[in-house]
Amino acid sequence: MRKSALLLPVLAVAIIGILSSLYIVDEREKALVLQFGQIKKVVEEPGIGIKIPVIQEVVRYDRRILSLDTDAIEVTPSDDRRLVVDAFTRYRIADVVQFRQAVGIGGTRVAEDRLASVLNAQIREVLGADQVTSDTILSPQRRELAVRILEQARASAAGLGLEIVDVRLKQTNLPQQNLEATFARMRAEREREAADEIARGNEAAQRVRAAADRTVVETVSNAEREAEITRGEADAERNRIYAEAFGNNPDFFAFYRSLAALERSMNEENSTLVFSPNSEFLGQMFDAVRADGLGQVALEDIDIDRLRDMAPETEISPDLPESERQRLEEDAAQQEAEEAEEAEAEREGAAEEAAEDNAGDEDVTN
Length: 366
Prior knowledge:
Layout: H1 2-20, E1 22-25, E2 29-35, E3 38-43, E4 47-50, E5 56-62, E6 66-69, E7 73-75, E8 83-93, H2 96-103, H3 107-127, H4 134-137, H5 142-158, E9 162-173, H6 176-248, H7 250-265, H8 280-290, H9 304-310, H10 322-365
Antiparallel strand pairs: 1-4, 2-3, 2-5, 6-8, 7-8, 8-9
């Protein structure tokens, strides 16, 4: 029993010692075996290794390509136009011994801080060199500038045990205060262009409007001229007809014109007129009657159809009572019937006279 009780602790200690003396290196890692802080062994191949428990320790480092984004920094190219540059780099740990000696126990965090300082210094140096302007940085030639930064940064990074694989300029912007000024200038430029376009549009619209107004004025003027010509010809024809009628019988013409003027002076709202016995308006109408009466009218010299066309059309006033309106319409219809009968009787009488004349001619012949 005593032997078994002593054997179990010894066995446990032996197992723990064996396990603590073994370590595993992944294929994505490199390792250093340290003894009291001193490098005793470098392990670059994956597998299982043995170390002295408690006395030795294993420090692992990533052997893959790592990425680092630097902070945005201001650079001043040769044209004194400040720019804000944001870059990133790809790197890997090439020499773990030198890397350990350079960064100590800080590891990757301290190495990236130093690498970022190296990159920022090289970016300022390359982008601030002579003949490198802001237009060059913003042009496709920026790739050549990135290659120059890469080559110059590799020498400094080698002292840290690092190998820089690639460097790229990610973003290139103007500083915030310059950016606002640039936007204001761009906005002013666009507003100026918009104002120019509006002015040109207004000018074109004014030309079109002026041409349209000129066309309207010309068309209206031509129409008015044609209307005045037509109106003048009509007035001339009317005056000729009036003059012809006046020459045939001046008294009848004056009497007719007075009747027409009297008819035009009466309207629907006012059908009552009061005249003085000595009114000139009535004098034109009744002077001939008061003196010797109307002169004899030579009917063969007067065109009755023309006088009828010249006479104004008469209508029954809508203000008359319905009964009086019906009476006037019946009288008019009766008068038309009587006139038709008289015309028919005249035609029959003319036919009988023609028949008698034919009969008399036949008797004389016999």
